[in-house]
Amino acid sequence: MMNFFSQKFLHFFKILTLADKILVAGIACMSIVSLLSLQWLAKPGAYAIIDEGGHDHYRFNLNENKLIICHGPIGETVIQIQDGKARVLRSDCPNQICVNSGTIDRAGQIIVCVPNKVLLKIEGDKKMQSLDVITE
After folding, report:
1. pLDDT (tens digit, 9 = 90+) per residue, 31-75?
2. Which residue of 4, 79, 111, 120 has the fewest CB atoms within a 10 Å radius of its CB?
3. pTM for this one?
4. Helices (H), the chain
5. Is residue 133 part of a domain?
6. Which residues contact 108 (CB under 8 A, 6 or more apart)?
7. Domain extent at residue 63
């Protein structure tokens, strides 16, 4: 089976012209550079915003070490804030995607526990954010 796919790939690679190969390599390089620059240019976070099911909204400073227990429809979600980073430490959800997401510390990053309806979002310092629109 693998031999079949490798033959198809080699056949496809042979029909590409030099210009096609350069174009594919250029697009791949630009994609990698843009993804890395998004990580490097993201502003550091100052606050962790926790939203429980859309009704409770909490804001915690990332510089304070805390353990927060959120109650959702299927159980508890435990959020840890430590050393300027936040993460979901434990949750009663079945897939554990929120727990396996790791830590977040940059403004705009989020972790969502969909089954338990808990949202963890990092927000930057208000005085560091630039203006989006000015109206008169």
Report:
1. 999 888 777 777 888 899 999 887 768 899 999 999 999 988 999
2. 4
3. 0.66
4. 2-15, 18-41
5. no
6. 42, 121, 122, 124
7. 47-125
